[in-house]
């Protein structure tokens, strides 16, 4: 229950009050009906032709084709030849883009996204709580979004390890996880980890920290402890090498995680709002010897864009949400443009099952607010996001050799009148509007029958 | 569950609501730092203006290429390809530009809220379930930062709407300029707002699992519905007693507020999303002969005949929101406008938002992406709301004799990439700055 001023719309709705699945029609039923259309088409080539192809990295190609083979992009351009056996999609008048990559999602998390109980819960992994039955994944495919970084919430200064997934609707969850993707972790600064807007459950004391000072201390102490932990292991190893009697230190999964951040094995994605806390974290990271891969939300990033660029951190943000809490009152839609102009690697992301299905709007807004070029705008949800996830060698643009995660739009995706016709991941079609429309009547009938059976 | 936040009431109200924190928002911050915009509200000058060589979109008629629009003293005096420009008029060259009427959001909280999490700045939601005497018109803040942020994108008017409870209160149609609330108010009350009781708080539950809980919900629903009907009956009796003038009647402000409603002089906006709620709301409207407007209405496609039969207008939105059932068509929210258009039912669009009421045109465009003709999408945020709210004599289109609510753009305002260059509200040219442009300028010039 929320008081009159809980804001369910703002981004952390999904983090704070993401509901459990209520009892209802078995989810497998819906999954079945809206299931993937892919039917083992991997063996044959697929040719999308006569399209305007937005390659992202090599400009916009009119009247071009994209050839897909074995889940990869095999050829792009005006003169692409395909074997006679290739399946052909005629995309005359349509636009093809890479799948949109959302670097901030809570979709497909079963139950709560926050392991609230400690200031640092870096040992937990969101991958352990993913479901392949969240209908939101399908809806996002229908909006051109093919993959996401699924994160913990922002209740703790260090929330847990995140997971990069593709929305392979209808496939087992194991197939959603992107193999070879970097490990990532969620940090959080500001009002949420200091519990500014939330009252603890009755009978429970407020949890530390309660200030931005405390948030800094939690992160600092975690890394200081991790350095000591590593030192204990180094001492142990040294003794062993000298054949001295040695007792191994006790293994600590949280400390292992923190140590892996220090070793550069885990990328930090940090929820942040205010300029002061952004600078605090960048300085702290420099001091303690780790990197911030991506600042998340980063609504006041425009105030300290030179500092962000100097650290080499990326920025992922929703473009025009503001005013839902005090630390979002200085959020401006020009944030993206100012960060880009200062050399910050910037993406637009959703933090919302709803926004995730029209991230193309947010890209267009970066042109409106601050005058990014069309190419710069398109990169925000594609190659820039892929770079932030360190997957730009495989994703984020239409280039030969990259994954065939492709979207066919009825109009230029930066137009508000654009609609998605087809979305594919690794060459398999996971959303097709014509199929979706055709299946609705079947679905209605089958649902009726099943409900009848159930009530017997 | 209550909310002051619109998306909750219109969109997420019907979506999943379990909280993973059993936690309540605290109001811990002072409101004093918020809502003191330094941008001029309006200049107070209704100059004679002529915009020439522009493509003019009157909305009520075909676009006029190389057209001229003239307005003075706040009123449009001429429009066409060959109209004389008065000698005293300031001439604006509109070459390459387009002229549209200002857009109207049929459901917003602009004016009633500044920062969601700061209770001192939130005036959307009274306590209790029955607040027919709560008036948005007396609480809108002319100096809210949201006012300039909204209007510089071409949204010149909003129906500022109270939230919460069952009878939430009276909305006000306001213009986004003016130095005092009365200067902003175009029409108040615009309507009485009823958040129609919901049989289930979780509409996803199609198969009841907990019979006891279901029974309890059902009881609550019946009780709420009974109370709503009792209240209308009381209002009818009160109206009768007051008009009979047999003896002096002690005034009851709550019932008094409902008299124009039960007398059919002020419309009731029934906020209802699921088909069964919509049907129940229509039944109550029938019973008390209310002048009703349906709002939210995500299931409207299932009740088209019932709505059509009664000739009821519908306020759709937020369009950019999720369907409430897992097995709803993914595009349910986008296609309702086309469904209503095809059925010949009058409709308008609301954002049910505050901070992003500026995105009203993109909500309309999303309907057009799914089959609504583009011209209809534009009408759903201009002419149709003016008609539904009973102000089409003044607002909603560019016609001689109408108020000069005029925006000058470099293209279709329903496209995000289009920029709004100038805004005139009631004939007065509005400052194009907002909190956002000022911060943008400040930090564009930050030394590195």
Which regions of chain A are unreliable across 5 or more consecutive residues at pLDDT < 50?
1-41
Class from helix and strand fractions of chain B: alpha/beta
How many helix segments of chain B? 12
- Per DSSP E runs of 2 or more residues, the count of β-strands of chain B stands at 16
Indicate the CATH topology of the domain at 100-394 in chain A: TIM Barrel
Largest sheet of chain B: 8 strands, mixed
Multimerization status: heterodimer
Give a structural overview.
The complex is a heterodimer of chains A (456) and B (448). By secondary structure, chain A is α/β, with parallel strands linked by helices. The longest helix of chain A is centred in the middle third of the chain and has 30 residues, at 212-241. Chain A has a domain at 100-394: TIM Barrel (Alpha-Beta Barrel). In chain A, strands 1, 2, 3, 4, 5, 14, 15 and 16 form an eight-stranded mixed β-sheet that branches. Chain A has helices at 13-16, 27-33, 135-141, 173-176, 212-241, 253-262, 275-288, 305-311, 335-341, 359-368, 374-380, 383-388, 433-455, and strands at 46-54, 60-69, 72-77, 87-90, 95-98, 100-105, 145-150, 158-166, 183-188, 266-272, 292-297, 314-317, 346-348, 406-409, 420-425, 428-432. Residues 1-41 of chain A have low confidence and may be disordered. With 448 residues, chain B is an alpha/beta fold. Chain B folds into two domains: 39-101 and 396-448, Urease, subunit C, domain 1 (Roll); 103-392, Metal-dependent hydrolases (TIM Barrel). Chain B has helices spanning 6-11, 146-151, 181-184, 211-244, 253-262, 275-287, 304-310, 332-343, 360-369, 374-379, 383-388, 435-444, and strands at residues 49-56, 64-72, 75-80, 90-93, 98-101, 103-108, 155-160, 167-175, 185-195, 268-272, 292-296, 314-316, 347-349, 406-409, 420-425, 428-429. In chain B, the strands form two sheets. In chain B, strands 1, 2, 3, 4, 5, 14, 15 and 16 form an eight-stranded mixed β-sheet that branches. In chain B, strand 15 (420-425) and strand 16 form a beta hairpin. In chain B, helix 4 crosses helix 5 (253-262) and helix 8 crosses helix 9. Chain B starts with 5 loop residues before the first helix and ends with a helix. The relative contact order of chain B is 0.17. Residues 1-31 of chain B have low confidence and may be disordered. Chains A and B meet through helix 2, helix 3, helix 10 and helix 13 of A and helix 1, helix 9 and helix 12 of B.
């Amino acid at each position: 229950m929320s008081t009159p001023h809980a804001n369910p719309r703002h981004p952390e709705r999904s983090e704070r009050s993401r509901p459990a699945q209520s009892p209802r029609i078995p989810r497998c039923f819906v999954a079945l009906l809206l299931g993937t259309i892919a039917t083992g088409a991997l063996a044959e080539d697929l040719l999308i032709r006569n399209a305007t192809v937005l390659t992202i990295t090599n400009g916009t190609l009119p009247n071009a084709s994209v050839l897909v083979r074995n889940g990869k992009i095999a050829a792009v351009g005006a003169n692409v030849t395909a074997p006679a056996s290739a399946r052909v999609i005629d995309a005359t008048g349509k636009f093809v883009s890479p799948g949109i990559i959302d670097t901030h999602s809570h979709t497909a998390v079963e139950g709560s996204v926050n392991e609230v109980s400690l200031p640092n819960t870096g040992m937990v992994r969101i991958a352990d709580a993913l479901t392949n039955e969240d209908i939101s994944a399908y809806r996002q495919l229908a909006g051109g979004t093919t993959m996401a970084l699924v994160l913990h919430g922002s209740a703790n200064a260090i929330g847990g390890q995140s997971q990069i997934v593709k929305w392979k609707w209808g496939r087992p969850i194991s197939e959603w996880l992107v193999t070879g993707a970097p490990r990532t972790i969620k940090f959080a600064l500001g009002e949420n980890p200091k519990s500014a807007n939330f009252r603890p459950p009755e009978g429970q004391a407020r949890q530390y920290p309660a200030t931005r000072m405390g948030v800094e201390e939690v992160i600092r102490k975690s890394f200081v402890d991790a350095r000591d932990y590593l030192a204990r292991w180094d001492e142990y190893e040294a003794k062993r090498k000298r054949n001295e009697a040695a007792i191994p230190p006790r293994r600590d999964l949280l400390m292992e995680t923190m140590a892996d951040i220090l070793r550069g094995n885990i990328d930090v994605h940090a929820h942040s709002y205010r300029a002061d806390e952004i600078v605090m974290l960048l300085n702290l990271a420099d001091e303690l010897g780790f990197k911030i891969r991506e600042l998340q939300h980063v609504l006041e990033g425009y105030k300290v864009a030179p500092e962000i660029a100097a650290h080499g951190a990326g920025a992922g943000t929703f473009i025009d949400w503001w005013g839902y809490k005090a630390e979002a009152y200085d959020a401006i839609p020009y944030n993206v443009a100012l960060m880009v102009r200062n050399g910050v690697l910037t993406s637009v992301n959703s933090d919302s099952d709803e926004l995730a299905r029209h991230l193309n709007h947010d890209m267009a807004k970066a042109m409106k607010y601050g005058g990014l070029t069309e190419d710069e705008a398109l990169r925000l949800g594609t190659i820039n996001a892929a770079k932030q996830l360190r997957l730009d060698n495989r994703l984020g643009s239409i280039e030969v050799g990259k994954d065939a995660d492709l979207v066919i739009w009825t109009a230029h995706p930066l137009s508000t009148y654009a609609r998605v016709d087809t979305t594919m991941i690794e060459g398999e079609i996971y959303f097709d509007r014509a199929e979706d429309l055709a299946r609705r009547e079947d679905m209605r009938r089958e649902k009726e029958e099943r409900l009848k059976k159930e009530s017997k | 569950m209550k909310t002051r936040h619109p998306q909750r009431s219109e969109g997420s109200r019907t979506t999943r609501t379990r909280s993973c924190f059993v936690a309540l928002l605290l109001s811990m911050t002072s409101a004093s730092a918020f809502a003191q915009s330094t941008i001029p509200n309006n200049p107070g000058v209704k100059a004679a203006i002529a915009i020439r060589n522009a493509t003019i979109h009157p909305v009520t008629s075909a676009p006029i290429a190389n057209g001229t629009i003239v307005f003075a003293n706040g009123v449009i005096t001429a429009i066409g390809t060959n109209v004389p420009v008065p000698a005293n008029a300031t001439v604006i060259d509109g070459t390459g530009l387009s002229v549209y009427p200002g857009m109207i959001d049929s459901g917003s909280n602009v004016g009633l809220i500044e920062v969601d999490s700061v209770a001192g700045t939130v005036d959307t939601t009274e306590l209790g379930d029955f607040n027919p005497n709560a008036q948005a018109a007396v609480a809108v803040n002319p100096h809210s930062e949201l006012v300039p942020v909204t209007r510089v994108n071409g949204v010149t008017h909003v129906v500022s709407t109270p939230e919460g409870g069952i009878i939430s209160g009276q909305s006000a149609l306001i213009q986004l300029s003016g130095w005092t609330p009365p200067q902003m108010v175009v029409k108040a009350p615009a309507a009485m707002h009823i958040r129609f009781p919901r049989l289930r708080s979780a509409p996803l539950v199609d198969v009841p699992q907990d019979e006891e809980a279901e029974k309890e919900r059902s009881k609550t629903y019946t009780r709420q519905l009974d109370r709503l009907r009792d209240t209308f009956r009381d209002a009818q009796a009160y109206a009768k007693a007051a008009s009979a003038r047999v003896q002096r009647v002690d005034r009851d402000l709550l019932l008094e507020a409902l008299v124009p409603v039960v007398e059919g002089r002020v419309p009731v906006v029934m906020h209802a999303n699921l088909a069964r709620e919509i049907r129940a709301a229509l039944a109550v409207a029938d019973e008390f002969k209310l002048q009703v407007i349906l709002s939210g209405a995500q299931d409207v496609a299932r009740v088209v005949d019932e709505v059509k039969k009664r000739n009821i207008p519908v306020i759709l939105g937020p369009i950019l929101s999720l369907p409430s059932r897992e097995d709803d068509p993914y595009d349910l929210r986008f296609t309702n406008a086309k469904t209503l258009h095809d059925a010949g039912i009058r409709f308008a669009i609301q954002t049910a938002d505050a901070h992003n009421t500026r995105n009203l045109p993109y909500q309309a465009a999303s309907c057009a992406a799914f089959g609504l003709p583009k011209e209809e999408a534009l009408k759903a945020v201009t002419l149709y709301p003016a008609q539904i709210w009973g102000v089409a004599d003044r607002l909603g289109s560019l016609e001689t004799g109408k108020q000069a609510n005029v925006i000058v753009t470099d293209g279709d305002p329903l496209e995000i990439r289009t920029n709004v260059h100038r805004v005139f509200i009631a004939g007065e040219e509005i400052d194009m700055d907002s909190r956002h442009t000022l911060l943008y300028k400040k930090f564009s010039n930050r030394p590195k």
